[in-house]
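User: Second chain of the day. Same drill as before.
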Amino acid sequence: MNGTLAGLLLYVVLITVVGLAIGRRVKGTGDFFVAGRALGPWLLFATLLAANIGAGSTVGAAGLGYANGIAAWWWVGSAGVGTLLLAVWLGPRIWRIARERSLLTVGDYLEYRYGPTVRGAIALLLWLGTLAILAAQLIAMAWILEVVAGAPRWLGAVAGGAVMTVYFVAGGLLSSAWVNFVQLVVLLCGFLVAVPLAIHGAGGAAAVLESARGVQGHLDFISNGTSGWMNLILLVPAFIVSPGILQKLFGACDVRTVRAGVGACGVALMLFAFLPPVLGMVARAVEPGLTDAETALPVVLTQGVPPWVGLLGLAAVLSAEISSADAILFMLSTSLSRDLYKRFVRPSASDRQVLRVARWAAVAGGAGGVILAVLLPNVVEALRIFYALLGVSLFVPLVAGLHTRRPGSAEALLAAAAGVGALLVARSAWDGSSWMVPPAWGLLAAAAAYGLVFAVRRRR
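Assistant: Same format as last time:
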């Protein structure tokens, strides 16, 4: 066993022990789902940022930087824009409703506004889509173990899935928030140290820029290849209405915490968005012939920096993947246990029974994510599936429900159906040249369907 692999395994054991220790404080679903609504600004900021910097923000963004250059900023930067909008617009409003009505999940909110049918339909849709984003985190963990230890992809996915499932099942959001704080410290330190040393190891900033000038479009910030401002259409709506983000927000102790914690997370994402693409461009300068661009980050952290820096950087990437994975398990377990089991299967279930189902749902979600991680081709493709599905199905019903007095279930159901239908048609017809990406058609169709049904109902 090499030193880098031993160090990574030691770090994984550390965060698992922390998660299990915090998990002993969980007494019921209030602690598991919303951490007792006691998160302050710093802890909310840490758990949101750690959850949002995952496989797509590290391995995926570096791969895009390797292929498309600095325009890869928009992959994470767009998520920061969406998070800022959540902080100043929708977040405080939905937090007040959640506090007043004792809502624990986004499904609770959907039923409050639209009724149980909408809650069940969207919960099922998102449960299936969420497995894709969980698979993306596990794919990224598998890349690390493959580069560091030569482990096969399936083994890396199984190992990563086991770690994040164990500590999340122990304590839900309460455990996750504290483990995320530890992971965030490692993550930020790792990237802030690794980037300048990687640039130095590649011959300095001048050498990296010279390499980028030799590749067409690599210094075009606005758009290049699959990267660019078009990601705003895909990612901004998704990060405003993501159930995983909103349910962490429900754990805030007051409105000021929502604005400060979520707003700081948005700013931090926009700043962090530069680091992985730069590492991807460094990898291009050092190893221009990689067969898979998504190996750029682990390659540069094992070959382009001193061993101790590589260990810190790989621990940072591993932190990002695991912290995002536990946020996704949070979405899966709360959705199945409360939105489906408690609401439709066994309404009389006790708090202890719902908590047990939430934990088993997390185990099932972890297993499903591992299977998809072996089947899906890469990180970014898995994430595109999830973000597109999330935006076109949930954005219009959730936002409209906060700004209309009498929304009905028909509007929400038809908006989600029209959005998903238009997305599927647009994906099959899109040739990659138009700025009207498939999620844009889905959002337009969802808004049109909602508005049409709402107008008809008001006339009646």
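Residues 404-460 form one domain.

User: Great, on to the next one.
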